Amino acid sequence: MNQLLQGLFDGVALGAQYSVIVVGFVVIYRATGIINFAQGGFVLIGAYVTYNISQTWGWNFYLALLMSMLVTAAISIVMQRILLQWVLREVVGMALWLVLWALLYFNGWGHAPAVAVSLLVGLVGFGVTRRIEQHRGSGQARELPIFGSIMVTIGLLYVIKQVVPSIWGFAELNMGDPWGLNVTRVGGLVLSHAKLWTIGLTVTALVAFFAVNRYTKIGVAMRATHFDHEAAVAQGISLKVVFAVAFGIAGAVAALAGTTAGAGIAQLTTNLDLIVFLAFPAMILGGFDSPGGAVLGGIIIGVVQNLTKVYQPEWDLNWLGVGFDRVTVYIVMLIVLMIRPYGLFGTREVHRV
Amino acid sequence: MNQPAVATEAADPILSIQNIEVVYNDVILVLRGVSLEVAEGEIVTLLGANGAGKTTLLRAVTGLLEVHRGSITKGTVSFLGRRTNFDDPSRLVRSGLAQVMEGRRIFAELSVEENLRAGAYTVRSRQAANEAHERVISLFPVLAERARSTAGYLSGGEQQMLAIGRALMASPRLLLLDEPSLGLAPLLVQQFRDIIRDINAQGTSVLLVEQNATMALSIADRAYVMESGRIVREGTGAELMADDDIREFYLGVGEAGRRSFRDVKTYRRRKRWST
What is the biggest distance separating any 2 CA atoms in chain A, rounded to whole angstroms? Predict the structure, then answer.
């Protein structure tokens, strides 16, 4: 009995991490219709930024986590603007900034003046192209090209996977979380502090997300956009803002998932993004476009995975191989899809033939 | 308010379209030099058969052409004296232009209340939004009764009320209505005619696109008739009501009383195919 409860607890903690990642996927899918494969990259960035702020700079860990969520959200929004919108002004401004910075920096200027001067020039370039664009009237209520955007996010994932180790190295790092190996014993159960906090922080983040989605103006706008792009635009809802908020939320939850996944007994490694491949079945299980389904799917996947891990040796199933828990997840997904092809809570699409 | 056309023409037009050409996908020419004006406080009706380009004209005004890969290649659209050819839709809504799209297009998964809030997206101050909300409710009390229910479960008439109410939440200076009578019972059409008149009386100019010519002409200060991308006739509502061609082809009444539709068709067919 204890073993089962322990397995359930650990599974829920694992599933909580999946849940927030999947919410990130679902939010972007609902707003833009694309699947953001770079989500794993943002998990990685979020975890390492938290590490950097809390360990290298020595800030309070919770403050570091909050900062990391904001920073990752900002990076996510900027990436979306530059790579997915393909708006001329951002590209021109960014290119001017980078080229000029490189020219100045490698010709003996100091770091700060080089950044400042090139930033100024980049902003001017941004402003000028913005004027031109407004005059030409391009870059308005445009939807993203689905297939191309997805390919771009895959490319972005690989870029991030190279950039992160080049900054922080490949070594395993200690996140600097205050939980460490601490545990609380309740009855026969061992509740690790890292897992308790994971569940607590995740629930907080999810409650905040659902409150925003349900009650605020931008939440209503996001749901309206999901239901009917054109009608939403006709109400004056700006797709740019909706896209940016969606990517911001996805970045923030990715940072949370990355930080909790690298905390506790687990160390911070550059393979942290692999967690996303177990979040995919959770998303498909819950239905692509339902945030509630995302949470439930994440928990189910986490519990299934962890119970497999617990009972595999006990039931003499070791011949199935190490890491079979990652397979059961997909088996569960397949079974659910056979019964409900659109996931547990997904929108059933009706096509007229 | 309901002044004759002569007087309104002198006033500054709230919406002015000059000779616009609209092309979809860079090849399909849909509007070929259309000019249209709406003066402050007017109800202007745009009549035309299916495919004449009425909805495209509205899209050109609201900035929604880009969603359909269309663009204005010639001419100007100006709203409140400002050239708005390339404005994005949210800026236009903020400056006082709201529309009810064809087929209602309410957010069926959201509640009635949330639909109205989505309509007030561009309204910054809470107070202004509340005032707009009260105005909408006084116009459509049924929306208050059903505030919490899912919009998709409303009846057709209620959905149309919601669509109009949602557009009015932005407190527009000019309201564009695309076929509000679509799919409604004749009694409801009368009701909506009165509602449109009320909205206009409260100080909102209206551009009404309709197929139901009787209803539309009866409240119009002025009207335009469109055919294959051109304005073929314009005048006051009463003038067009009296016009023989309009009576024959839009109101279904010939000179010698009611004529069989079959006669009209063979007449047109012969004329078109024999030469």
Answer: 71
Residue where a domain terminates, one of B130, B153, B170: B170
CATH of the domain at B69: 3.40.50.300
- Name residue, tokens 């969520």: A69
Residue B145 lies inside a defined structural domain of this protein: yes
A3 in contact with B at a CB cutoff of 8 Å? Answer: no
Among A136, A229, A237, select the one facing B121 at the smallest CB separation: A237
Let me know: does A140 contact B88? Beta carbons within 8 Å. Answer: yes
Question: Parallel, antiparallel, or unpaired for β B205-210 and B174-178?
Answer: parallel
Residue A208 to residue A157: CA distance in whole angstroms: 27
Residue B15 has a pLDDT of 93
Asked if A108 has any chain B CB less than 8 Å from its own CB, the reply is no
Q: Output A159 or B265, whichever has higher pLDDT.
A: A159
B2 CB within 8 Å of a chain A CB: no
- Residue B92 sits in the same domain as residue B111: no
The predicted structure's pLDDT at residue A137: 55
3-class SS of residue B147 = coil
Instruction: Say yes or no: A134 contacts chain B, CB-CB below 8 A.
Output: yes
Alpha carbons B146 and B165: distance in angstroms, whole number: 13
Of B108, B117, B122, the CB nearest to A236: B122
Instruction: Give the chain B residue nearest A137 (alpha carbons).
Output: B86
- Looking at chain A, which residue has its C-alpha nearest residue B122? A236
The answer to whether residues B47 and B166 belong to one domain is no
- Could you give the domains of chain A? 2-86+150-339 (1.10.3470), 88-138 (no CATH)
ipTM of the complex: 0.84
Q: Could you tell me if A348 lies within 8 Å of chain B, comparing CB atoms?
A: no
Cβ-Cβ contacts under 8 Å, A229 against chain B = 67
Q: Domain span at residue B92?
A: 5-96+172-242
B9 touches chain A (CB under 8 A): no
A221-261 pLDDT, tens digit per residue, is: 999 998 888 899 999 998 888 999 999 999 999 999 999 88
**Would the pLDDT of A68 be above 90?**
yes
Same domain, B152 and B28: no
